[in-house]
Specification:
Catalyzes the 2'-O-methylation of the ribose of cytidine 1402 (C1402) in 16S rRNA. By secondary structure, the protein is α/β, with parallel strands linked by helices. It contains nine helices and ten strands. β6, α6 and β7 form a beta-alpha-beta unit. The chain binds S-adenosylmethionine.
Length: 249
Amino acid sequence: QAGLYFVATPIGTARDITLRALDILASADVIAAEDTRSMKRLLEIHGVPLGDRPVLSYHDHSGEKARAKLMAHIADGRSVAYASEAGTPLIADPGYHLSRAAAEEGYLVTSAPGPSAIITALSLAGLPTDAFFFAGFLPNTRKARMTSIEAVADVPGTLVFYESPKRVAAMLADAADVLGGQRQAVMARELTKKFEELRRGTLDELAQGAAEVPPKGEIVVLVEKAKAKVASPEEIEAALRGALETQSV
Ligand code: SAM
């Protein structure tokens, strides 16, 4: 059926792909990918013949023209499968503008769901998962990073960040400064891969560990939600006084 099919691909281990995702990749008229080389490799690993189908390069910065080309394929009645380099498209990955464009045209937009580092990390971290907030990648500069962490400090759920190994020590130190070094946190590294590792501890401990032994590979940082604030006796008194004053006016 004509439309846009978002296909989730592995985040480390090539066999972490659904049978339906492979079916869609096998039958789509057009395959588009953030990284055409890794797409071709994935198809090869799973024995999906490409035949004479094109593998088109697309990321959201490819611009209007590349997007229009994919839209034209759908308008002509073709199915277009799109995958980002790893994991679920649109999750810290391209696909958003494509999704919007297809939806605006009223085309079928559907997916073959699969791995994402957010969900994989949450399922292993041992932090509450009833509510969580995905904060994506933080900015590069310290000032902007601190401001971004501050903005999510009181979110009532587990915080999930993507981070690069180069910056993770600095990010953990900044998070400890802004959120308090005693918050529980987890650094999930190289998920589903040979050197998968979960470091658990307080933000202070993880920051110190990352400074001493710089982690390598792909990383998700999770931080427990803020504890409910307990008002001090002074704050309670001030609130009561305020309430009484407004009543006597
Ligand atoms: N679309 C992907 C997803 O659904 O998770 C995320 C793509 S984003 C460009 C790449 C970032 O995701 C990495 O820098 C890292 O923070 C995280 N990530 C991806 N694969 C990972 C893995 N195997 N282990 C830990 N983190 C991973």
